[in-house]
Amino acid sequence: MSELDLEPVIGIDLGTTNSVVATVIDGVPRVIQGRSGQLLTPSVVALAKNGKRLVGQIAKRQAITNAENTVHAAKRLIGRRWGSKEVEDAARILPYQLVAGPEGHDVRIRLGERAYAVPEISAMVLSELKADAEAFFGRRVSKAVVTVPAYFNDGQRHATKDAGRIAGLEVLRIINEPTSAALAYGFAKQMEKKVVVFDLGGGTFDISVLDIGKSVYDVVAVGGDTYLGGEDFDRRVMDWIVFAFAKENAGIDLRSDKMALQRLKDAAEKAKIELSSSPATSISLPFLVGGGEGRPALHLEKQLTREKLEELTGDLVDRCIRVVERTLRDAGVRARDVGDVILVGGMTRMPRVQRAVREFFGREPSRGVHPEEVVALGAAIQAQNLAYPAKGQSEVLLLDVTPHNLGILVVGGYFETIIPKNTTVPTSANRIFTTVQDNQTAVRIAVLQGESERATDNELLGEFVLDGLRAARRGEVEVEVQFDISADGIVGVSARDLQTGQRQSITVTATSGLTEEELRHILEENVDEALERKQAQSDFERRREAAEAVMREIEGLVPAVSDALARSRFGKDAVQKAVGVIQRVRQALAARDVQSLEANEEQLDRTLQLFKSLAAGGRPPEDPR
Amino acid sequence: MSGERYRGFVFVPAELAEEAELSLEQKKEILYLHANLATLSYWDLLGIPWNASCEEAQEAFRRQALSLHPDRLRGKRLGRFGARLQAIFPKLNEARETLADPGRRSAYARKTASPTERAKLEVRDIQEERRAEERRARLARQNPIVAKVARVGELMTRARRALEEGRWSQAANDFQLVCSLDPKNEEARKQADEARRKAAASRAAELHEKGLATELGGSLQAALTLFREAVEVDPGSSHAATAASRVARTLGDLPTARDMAERAVRAGPRDAAAHEALAQALAAQGDSKEARRVAERALELDPRLEGAKAVLKKRWGLFG
Fold it and tell me: Which H helix or E strand runs over A256?
């Protein structure tokens, strides 16, 4: 079977600001161009004023005039809890409205009339990329590997997987962005060395330490900050402008004007990008905001130097380096043992970032030509690997690790780690616990993930109760808790009473985000929508055929009718009217406008009746209207 | 994997014949590992000889992973081999985690050395020593200048014997003598220091014993003085410092209790009782957060410590 006969599989880098889709063709990974020729699709979704849903570049372009209904950076919210610090921070700066989900613990985004779950928004971006891939292949694409920041927790991963399902994709695997980048980087090269991937993207910072050898990509440690990325750099520039502007213009706060803020955001991002290649740039935003009380509009004109930008964002770069230090320590790897440092993500184009990395590792970092694309390329390689393991061009095996400690809640509100972070998956581990009260017959097992030793500071993944324990003095009943993590990263937890063998277990699924029921509902809704669309389409086709038949008949009768009318005193304008009706129908057909087609069908029919009777030599009836 | 690996293991023909998209080698490896999962050493799991290097372990793990990782077998018909594989891979992981880490590897190697291997090591030591002795004697006969070296050798032997018999002061003196004869003798210098430390330790142990007796006799203040003296003589004695902390705490001298406990922990970073004493001193001073942390560490070192458990209260139980 040749590669062409196999269903194509894709890799998707679902980014904070931009997303990329790639595939492997003839053993070579490549980025798929979108239908409008772009390689990067902005991760932006909008509801236009006319009620149409927009995704990608087109959505980004109208963001300025429609800020409240344009969602960007949804990745910062995916799998997050309502009321968490991260969400509260985001709510303050995002122009669109966030609301609590029905259960009160997940985040929804208001877009027009409806509140969408974050995975639904991400699904719209994924659907767009899927459609791009389908246009590219000219056939259905249903399997994908989707990347997430290495530091994403279980909830965020599940939510991303849900987004894939909503978009009609079977997500073969959620893999880590830096690992994915390393895979693309090492592709078709024989390598035996330790590699550090430094991935500073739009919204997140990630670092992975890998030990590559014998085509095994062995992740040693991961670290990161899910709230540190290009957007934070942009915000520094924005704040700087806002304050300067307020100072120069009698305290006018640009942040109170959503449209001005959106323009400012775009300008800040553009200036930051320009400063990667030139030492200074100017920010020019004419008519940025009304002067108030009838005074003329105010313009913004500012110079920004690279030096100033570096001063504004120096602490963000320092934060990255601190994470790097910590992760290397976790990995037990010294900076000088590192054989290569790979830069990934658009933010690594910034000279200050490159300098910091160079200084820390004492070596020149490597970077591909396109740091934005390499993650998607790696995802495509892994998709190919997983879908067709035997047909892989090279034997590649990715050994990834758990990014956070996994454990359970114990008495006192403490968190007891059972599987420590940076453990290679698949893995399993168990630990024995005891009861704390006399005659306690049930224990509650709350599964948590995180770094804090206080349980409440960590992410709750799920919980269950093991009951039917033998009644005994406290501390005497022993319960064995077993954790398993599969290669897919799915966490299974079971508890067993060592005396009775009584057993309870759960497979951990997301507790934040969509419930399974909701997800099913959305999927059904999507199916319904698709069905409706299909039905509407066949309905339209039926009407088109009918209308065209009638029009042909009318046109065929025109000579006879003209003859008849020439001998009559009545209905001189009948032909003219008929031409008008036909024209309107043709317009409706061209625009696929069912309503206007429907509105003209009756008239078309009456015209035909009239023409028939006229052609038969009868008198025109009363004016048909 | 060579046939050697499966020597003595009987494959059940029906199991081996089960239809699955696996090579015969893979099937054999899976059946062998699964049947012996509980008893195989980490070395055996990875198929490497006892005491193989970290690099060898890493490479063997990768070889196994390429053959047996679930991702490499995705979408294949595995039959009952699938379930076996699920149990195997975490074990391989565990083996790698230990054997590819230099510290854990050498501890595991000591633990798993078979009697024959241990014997081999000992024989090698003895043979080497005998050969070295012969060489020294030969040199001494041939060259009078080497006589000094022979004298040094004699002294060293005597000092070592003293060390073995616990006559620390004697050993310290002999080693010191060697140092003056042969100032470049690093070993003697080290041994001299060691012997002096040991001498101090034995003196401290004496004081410690005496302190314990005094404590039992009821004169706590005197016991505290003895324990403190023991700590002064030998700052490495975590036992004495722990005892001093305990007595000071009973006496209500909390700063001393804490100071002594801190010294105990410094002297014995793996001494559970020292950690327990520090936890108790901290708890007594009201620093419960730090106390808990230290108590936890103490229980890690020895889960049966009642005092540390008391500091933590019901730390290890589960809610109802």
Answer: none
Q: Where are the alpha helices (DSSP H) in chain B?
A: 13-17, 24-35, 42-46, 54-68, 81-99, 102-112, 115-142, 147-165, 168-181, 186-217, 220-233, 238-251, 254-267, 272-285, 288-301, 306-312
The torsion angles phi and psi of B314, rounded to 5 degrees, stand at: -100, 45
Put simply, whether B72 touches A (Cβ < 8 Å) is: yes
Mean pLDDT of all residues belonging to chain A: 87
Contact A398 B73 (CB under 8 A): no
Which CATH fold would you assign to the domain A3-229+315-399? Nucleotidyltransferase; domain 5 (3.30.420)
The minimal CB distance from A433 to the residues B71, B72, B318 is found for B318
Q: What is the pLDDT of residue B314?
A: 45
- Mark whether A199 is an active-site residue: yes
Among B24-28, B80-84, B237-241, the minimum mean pLDDT is found in: B237-241
Whether A364 has a pLDDT exceeding 50, the answer reads yes
- pLDDT confidence band for B296 (50 / 70 / 90): confident
Is the same domain home to B10 and B96?
yes
pLDDT at position B320: 56
Radius of gyration of chain A (CA): 31
H helices of A304-348, in order, are 306-331
ipTM of the complex: 0.74
Structure tokens given for A338: 């590192």
Closest CA to A341 of A332, A353, A381, A329: A353
Provide the residue range defining the domain that includes B85: 3-113
Are B286 and B308 members of one domain? yes
- Angstrom distance (rounded) from CA A337 to CA A349: 25
Name the nearest CA neighbour of A447 among A480, A487, A417, A489. A417
Q: Which of A427, A431, A461 has the alpha carbon at shortest distance from A447?
A: A461
**Angle, alpha carbons B245-B248-B253 (nearest 5°):** 125
Interface contact B320, partner A, CB < 8 A: yes
Which residue from B minimizes the CA distance to A467? B320
- Pairwise CA distance, residues A404 & A153, whole Å: 7
Tens-digit pLDDT profile for residues A293-338: 777 788 888 999 999 999 999 999 999 999 999 999 988 899 988 9
Give the number of other Cβ atoms within 10 Å of residue B210's Cβ: 16
pLDDT digits (tens, 9 = 90+) for A122-160: 999 999 999 999 999 999 999 999 999 988 888 899 899
H runs (alpha helix) in A275-305: none
CA distance B90 to chain A (A): 4
Q: Which of A204, A201, A133 is nearest to A167 (CA)?
A: A133
pLDDT at B198 over 90: no
Q: Do B93 and A475 touch (CB under 8 A)?
A: no
CATH architecture of the region A406-514:
Sandwich (2.60)
**Percentage with pLDDT > 70 across chain A:** 94
**Chain A partners within 8 Å of B291 (Cβ):** none
Contacts of A445 in chain B (CB under 8 A): 318
Number of domains in chain B: 3
Query: Residue B317 and residue A411: Cβ atoms within 8 Å?
Result: yes
User: How many cross-chain Cβ pairs, A to B, lie less than 8 Å apart?
Assistant: 106
Band (pLDDT 50/70/90 cuts) for residue A14 is very high
DSSP A191: -
> B318, A436: Cβ pair inside 8 Å?
yes
Tell which of A175, A218, A467, A476 to mutate to test the B interface (max B CBs under 10 Å): A218
Topology of the domain comprising A230-314:
Actin; Chain A, domain 4 (3.90.640)
B51 at interface of A, judged by CB pairs closer than 8 A: no
Sheet containing A70-71: order of strands: A53-55, A45-47, A70-71
Whether B188 contacts B179, CB under 8 Å: yes
Residues B150 and B192 in one domain: yes
